[in-house]
Design goal:
Number of helices of chain A: 20
Strand content of chain B: under 5%
Structural class of chain B: mainly alpha
Strand content of chain A: under 5%
CATH architecture of chain B: Orthogonal Bundle
Number of helices of chain B: 3
Distance between the termini of chain B: 57 Å
Largest sheet of chain B: none
Structural class of chain A: mainly alpha
CATH topology of chain B: Helix Hairpins
Oligomer: heterodimer
Mean pLDDT of chain B: 92
Radius of gyration of chain B: 17 Å
Low-confidence stretches of chain A: 479-491
Order of helices and strands of chain A: HHHHHHHHHHHHHHHHHHHH
Number of domains of chain A: 1
Number of strands of chain B: 0
Low-confidence stretches of chain B: none
Helix content of chain A: over 70%
Number of strands of chain A: 0
Chain lengths: 491, 101
């Protein structure tokens, strides 16, 4: 492997090295400050190396570092950075905080490999690196029964969904004879018998649907969101889902799946069901973490709608949506994190009563992020939803758009319900909330500013998203012979 | 003559057994074992498919990775099951229900 090739994969090397440094630091002497610092510095260095890695492509077919991958890697690294900052404040009040940072770095490494994957093997390795670290992260506060229970649920469902994904991969490989993602489209066009490809792709999509928590694979989300420590919930909501969305877009693009009638209908039903079920189930929640979990199901439904629209414009919309969602949900869980005391997370809605009068700064960040989740103008969420609707209109997905608009209106109700609770009069005897650490305060301020900035002036984001989408379009032009019966068409 | 179809039928059968075990059984350890069975069905399919696509060794190499990952998953998974047992004194999945509303 030449020096250029090593440079090309330097973000991965930096992340791995940072995890090792943090781990070795723990073996020598436990120090929360050192572990947190190693994590934050490692993530910052990985970000720097992402832009200093030169123009040489990574060696072999396993990894692809195109503009699309770079944009999502930057998103993943930024989100992990935010989670690390939040976690340093959160874990300072808890026992044995050090290993969390090692696991966080390894999870980030897995997510980056997932985003870069150009081969089914790297896809699987990235996904498992991410999932196995998440099992431990979700159950990190292992004396808390909710945390361990969430971890058990995630373990079982994620492991089973990986097995299903793998079985789909095996079937696709048995039929096409290749595991390189961009070779699969052309191989599909010339494959003589396609009997295994359709069930194979269906199984793979099932596995991915589990990770994205789309209906009907969404059962685990509320419990995992509720049980996991708040910074880890932020990680599950952003890094894990964003990386899988990137992978899904890459796969859908390469296989040309977004162009076949039967699959389009199936995905359409999943998207519509996710939007409706997510928003309807969130209506009855009195727990903020569960509410955000159900809302995430709906938001992934919006993302799927954009993916279904097809074409580079739709991929641009997906990237815009994912970016806006990252900022918004990090702000929301950031607030949950800083309000959480040492004996449990602040997730019951009554704990937020009168928050605006008690903690104005923190409350305003949460209000902003809820408005953004609801898609109110002048926030990032509005621009994102606008991009998705625009992509849908261009492709004439009228039924899905109708569902999107209706379910967004339902969503508005429960987001505003939380805002109303926060503006209510403060209860007489409110618990003394912990002081907000300075680092978390700065982070929340930055997130709030970005949230508004993206909503007011989205042009740079649109430019970046467009670069990402067109790089994907360049390297594998859309395949016009998508999955379908063998009689469909042959070259 | 044994064709790819024969291998795949066996693999699907094993995978189905694993899936049934995963759905029906309530013991966490048996559930984890069922997942192992599913992964081994995948390994069989991959190695068999590799024989019929000998151009690269992607299938065989993937099988190795799956074995390694399955070991890692089992290690972490069992650790989590142990900490669950410490809290609840049970390894039954239907007793992991503290968060139902």
């Amino acid at each position: 492997m030449s020096a250029d090739e090593l440079r090309a994969i330097s973000p991965l090397i930096v992340l791995g090295a940072a995890a090792l440094v943090a781990l070795l630091g723990i073996t020598i002497r436990r120090s929360h400050r050192f572990s947190a610092l190693a994590c934050v510095v490692g993530l910052a260095l990985a970000m720097a190396s992402l832009f200093l890695r030169g123009s040489a492509p990574p060696p072999g077919p396993l990894l692809v570092a195109d503009d699309f991958a770079v944009v999502y890697t930057a998103l993943v690294l930024t989100a992990s950075f935010a989670v690390a900052v939040l976690a340093s404040g959160y874990m300072a009040r808890r026992q044995r905080p050090e290993e969390l940072y090692v696991l966080l770095l390894v999870a980030t490494l897995g997510a980056v490999v997932l985003v870069w994957s150009g081969h089914l093997v790297s896809l699987f390795l990235g996904l498992e690196t991410l999932s196995v670290s998440l099992y431990s992260l979700i159950g990190y506060t292992r004396t808390g029964p909710r945390s361990v229970e969430a971890s058990i649920k995630y373990l079982i469902l994620a492991a089973a969904s990986s097995a299903i994904l793998l079985f789909g991969m095996a079937l696709v490989y048995a039929e096409l004879g290749t595991m390189v993602i961009i070779e699969m489209g052309p191989a599909l066009a010339v494959a003589s018998g396609r009997t295994l490809v359709v069930p194979g792709v269906a199984l793979m999509v099932t596995g991915i649907g589990f990770k994205l928590a789309l209906v009907p694979f969404h059962m685990w989300t509320p419990d995992v969101y509720e049980g996991a420590p708040a910074p880890v919930t932020a990680l599950v909501a952003t890094v894990s889902k964003g990386a899988v969305v990137a992978l899904f877009v890459r796969l859908a693009w390469a296989l040309g799946a977004a162009g076949q009638a039967a699959l389009l209908v199936a995905f359409g039903i999943v998207a519509a069901a996710s939007m409706l079920a997510g928003n309807l189930l969130a209506l009855r929640q009195d727990n903020l973490k569960r509410l955000l979990a159900y809302s995430s199901i709906a938001h992934l439904g919006y993302v799927l709608t954009a993916i279904l629209a097809g074409g580079p414009g739709a991929i641009e919309a997906v990237s815009i949506y994912v970016t806006a969602y990252f900022v918004t949900i990090l702000a929301a869980f950031g607030v949950v994190t800083v309000l959480s005391g040492p004996d449990g997370d602040a997730d019951r809605l009554e704990e937020y009563q009168g928050l605006v009068w008690r903690r104005p700064f923190v409350a305003m960040v949460l209000v902003l992020s809820l408005l953004s989740l609801a898609g109110i103008p002048l926030t990032a969420g509005f621009i994102a939803k606008f991009a998705v609707i625009f992509a849908g209109v261009r492709s004439g997905l009228w039924t899905l758009l109708a569902v999107l608009v209706i379910s967004s209106a339902i969503g508005l109700y429960y987001y505003l319900r939380v805002v109303v609770v926060m503006f209510a009069a403060a209860p007489a005897a409110s618990a003394v909330a912990p002081p907000v650490p300075q680092s978390s305060r700065v982070l929340l301020l930055c997130l709030a500013l970005i949230l508004v900035w993206l909503g007011v002036y989205p042009v740079p984001l649109q430019g970046i998203a467009w670069t990402a989408a067109s790089s994907l379009a360049r390297e594998s032009p859309p395949v016009t012979t998508p999955l379908g019966p063998a009689t469909a068409r042959r070259p | 003559m044994i064709t790819l179809g024969h291998y795949l039928v066996l693999s699907v059968a094993i995978f189905t057994v694993g899936t049934i075990g995963f759905v029906v059984r309530r013991n966490l350890l048996v559930v984890l074992m069922s997942i192992e069975l599913q992964l081994n069905a995948v390994n069989l399919a991959l190695v068999a498919a590799n024989r019929f696509h000998p151009a690269s060794h992607a299938g065989q190499v993937t099988a190795f990775f799956i074995i390694a990952i399955a070991a890692a998953e089992a290690a972490v998974g069992l650790a989590i099951v142990v900490s669950f047992f410490r809290l609840r004194h049970t390894v039954r999945t239907d007793e992991a229900d503290r968060m139902r509303h």
